[in-house]
Every structure is written in structure tokens, then in C-alpha cells.
Amino acid sequence: MDIHDSEGLGMHSFLQPIADLETATKSASGCLPEDPGVSTLEFIESCFIPKHVELKTQAGRTHYRAILKHVLRPETVDRLLLPYKGVSKSRMKSIPEWPYLDETKLCDICPDHVRQLTSLAVTHGYSPQTVKHIKNVVYAIISHAKRERILSGDNPIAEVHLPPIKRRAYDPISLFDAKAIFRMMGYPERQISLIVLNSNMSVSEVCALQWNHVNLTQRTAYVEDSLVPPRSILVSYRQSSAGLTRVTADRVRTIELSPSLADLIDALSRQRGAFGGFIFLSRSGMPISPARILKSKLKPIGRRLGIDFSWHTLKEIHDVLLQDLRAKLNSELAIL
Description:
Distance between the termini: 116 Å
CATH architecture of the largest domain: Orthogonal Bundle
CATH superfamily of the largest domain: Intergrase catalytic core
Shape: globular
Number of helices: 12
CATH class of the largest domain: Mainly Alpha
CATH topology of the largest domain: hpI Integrase, Chain A
Largest sheet: 3 strands, antiparallel
Structural class: mainly alpha
Strand order of the largest sheet: 1-4-7
């Protein structure tokens, strides 16, 4: 054996334990060694989820679970995210022709991969917002790989330009439709809508409203380290598909109850009983989901009237009714 070979073998034997230690250290930290040939699935499972997704809030994890199912096979995503609290299993199944990136090498991901994903998403009727989220999640995966020094250079997904969002044009809500919608509403969609229209609360905030956050008395109340003035509401939570979460700091506020809003909530307390907990409860005892109310209650009303109903439609209804009231008031003033 050549002396140089023997020296090289000896040096290799000396350095190997150090290399093994570095590999073990990186594996213990939940991230792969620097290997541009690693598959997208391996990287997401070993690095992206534990060091990025797991650090998100429940809402953030739910978002990644939903969008990753358009990047990896849905069954795979269910397996990867099932251990994390607040992420539930979905019934979504793999689509045969979908260009999932499970086996694609991380270093091989290019703009065309994202264009194929987003193009098929459009073909399958996904919303422009979902299409945008698909691109953003792939961008986040590549960006995280760059932070972990597994990839280098610019993020190629930045080159992908999505088509502008086209809003569907709908006929404006008529006064007849506005009145018909309210006549067809029942509990709880009518009460939720009236609270939304008589305050600056969002639907998700109304659905998360709790009795102990409502002060119907003439004295100041103390709730969750906050002073709630007389006849006011403390807004500090919201209810969405991600579950019950606190609103951001700039959205925590108190709302003064107008006479009509106070009467409405007082009537609810007498009819339903203000025994603590949430004002609007589902059968399971949890706060009502705005998405479920929209789907099960309001969408059917919209279909009967030929209207594509959304929660935004409430604002249109409100504007139409206000315009009608102004017209009547102006007529009466003209007569006077």
C-alpha cells in the first residue's frame, strides 16, 4: 500500500467519529444533514414540521395541514401532523393526476412544479386564495431549507406569478331580497347577524362571545384583567375553523351597547339563560362555527333567492336597509 494511502486511511479513521458526531447532533436537533439530494417529504418530516410548523399557533398548524395536502399526498400529511395538538385528521384523499412533491428532490423543485400545482388547483375549482397559499407554502419550504443551509441561492418560487384574482360580479341585493332574507332567518343566524349589524364586531368575534364578557349592568365590571364599562362588551376572542383563539392585541376592545343591541342581548339572556359559557352554543357545547352557520343556514336561504350568500352579504343587506330608511325619512321631511 502506498504511504499516502495509509496516511489517508489513518486520517479518515481519525475524522470519522467527528463526522458521525456531527451527523448525530444534526439528527438529534430534528434536521437533516446538508444533503441537496434529500426528498421533499424527508425534509418536511425531519426539519420543516418540527422546526417551523410545530412552532406555529393552532391556527397556523391548521393552515399548514390544509395547504400541505396540495403539496404532499393528503394521507402523508395526516400521518405527519397527527401527533400535534389541535390538528385533526381530514377525509381528503389523493388525486391520481396531482403532481405531489413527496419523492421530488428538494434541490430539484423549480417554478414549473408550482405552476403545475397551481394550474391544477384552478382547474379543480379552488379559490384564488387557496391557489396563492399553495405557492406560499412551497416558497416557505424552500426558504426554510435555505435557512438550514441545505439549499443556497435565490428562492426559485419567487419567479412564479399567479394570475390576478378575478372577482365574480353579482347583481346587487334588492330591498325585497334584503327583507326576505331576514324573514327567512331563524336562531341563531338572525341574532348573530343583528349583533354584527349593530356593532363593529366580526362574525367570528360574535360567535366567540361569552356571557361573562357582557356587562349589562350600570356598574363597571372586571373581566380577565380588563375593566368593562357599564352596558359594554369585552371583545377578546374569535371563533373560526381553527377553533377558539384570542384576537390580536390591537383587536382587544370594549364596545358600548346601543339600546337596541342591549335589548337584543338581554332578550337572549332571558330566552336562553345567561349561565356562563358562550352566548351561541353548538349541540356539542362548543361555540358555534361561523362557517357551519353559513353553510347550513345562510347558503340555503341564498339558493332559494338566487343569491350567492356570504357573511359579506350582511353588509350589503345593511346598506340597502339603511338606504331605504333614509329615503323614507327624506320623504317625511319633505312633506313636513
